[in-house]
Amino acid sequence: MAFPLQNPRQLSDYDLRLLKVFQAVVEHGGFAAAEAHLGITKSTISIHISNLEQRMGFTLCQRGRSGFTLTHEGQSIYHATLNLFESVRDFSLLVGSLGAELSGELVIWCSEQLDQAKQLQFAQVIEQIHQQHSGLQIELDAMSIDQIEKGLLQGKVHVGIYPAYHKVDGLEYLPIHQEQVFLCCSNRHPFFHKTDHQISDQDFANAETIHPGIDITGEGKAQLEKFNLTAKSYQFHMRKILINSGQYLGFMPQGHIQRELNSGTMRLLRPNSINYDFTLSLVYHKQPREAKKQGIAISAIEKVFVDN
């Protein structure tokens, strides 16, 4: 189906509504799949897309028994639609940030690498932000590093807290906490009742050990290469479960296992020589959409974690 070309014109509210329908159809993979999301019938969606094609002057998609596919023009319009609505969102965020009283969400995502002491410090951060900016709705959540990086780059997250072994262009990194990570085992492991001198280097090399679930660099990488890595766990609390099974050795910060060390259910192995530094960083976008909100979070976190 071909339509005559039309002269360029400004988009109307009706055009924007039709583009919203088109975006939903593309992202759900067809008319039928988009019904529930849009709350309208398949036949109504078809009418909306036909109207949009008529107004645009070309076919946006092929639909039929062979399935739903975008034309070349449809792909271009879809990507332009994403940019259009993203620009509208950016404009709304900018307008909102210019008011005397900040409102809306302040989003902080962590990678769950927080022991009890750091959790208490973060409680101080939240207290400070809430007391000074009560109009903000704070979202504090745990996500994977990949999710945090994506959220920061997309402008959906104001700051992230995670171990930054690898740097991403466009993001800024500020170390806020450093501690050593030690090799340890539980009292159910054969090494527990041996002295460090009784455990040879070859014993360590043969022992099943947990990989931290992330490609670390420097001394940490050099330490890991000495071991038989047969399990994987990124989160410290999940790694602790593997260690407590008595089947694996694993690297843990002392703050996460202090209770077990005190009770005698875990021990460190060669702590003076088998260790590496673990650093948590405050990560944020170099060119944020909402600079004021980002600055509020950075200031509060620096005051509690860095200045004290």
Automatic annotation (TrEMBL):
Query: Has UniProt tagged this entry with the keyword Transcription regulation?
Result: yes
Q: Does the keyword rRNA-binding apply?
A: no
Molecular function terms in GO for this entry?
A: DNA-binding transcription factor activity; transcription cis-regulatory region binding
Xref: SUPFAM superfamilies: Periplasmic binding protein-like II, Winged helix' DNA-binding domain
Residue span, HTH lysR-type domain: 14-71
Q: Please name the InterPro entries in this protein's record.
A: LysR_HTH_N, LysR_subst-bd, WH-like_DNA-bd_sf, WH_DNA-bd_sf
- Keywords on record: DNA-binding, Transcription, Transcription regulation
Q: What superkingdom does the record give? A: Bacteria
UniProt cross-references to Pfam families, sorted A to Z:
HTH_1, LysR_substrate
Tell me its family: Belongs to the LysR transcriptional regulatory family.
Instruction: Write the protein's name.
Output: LysR family transcriptional regulator
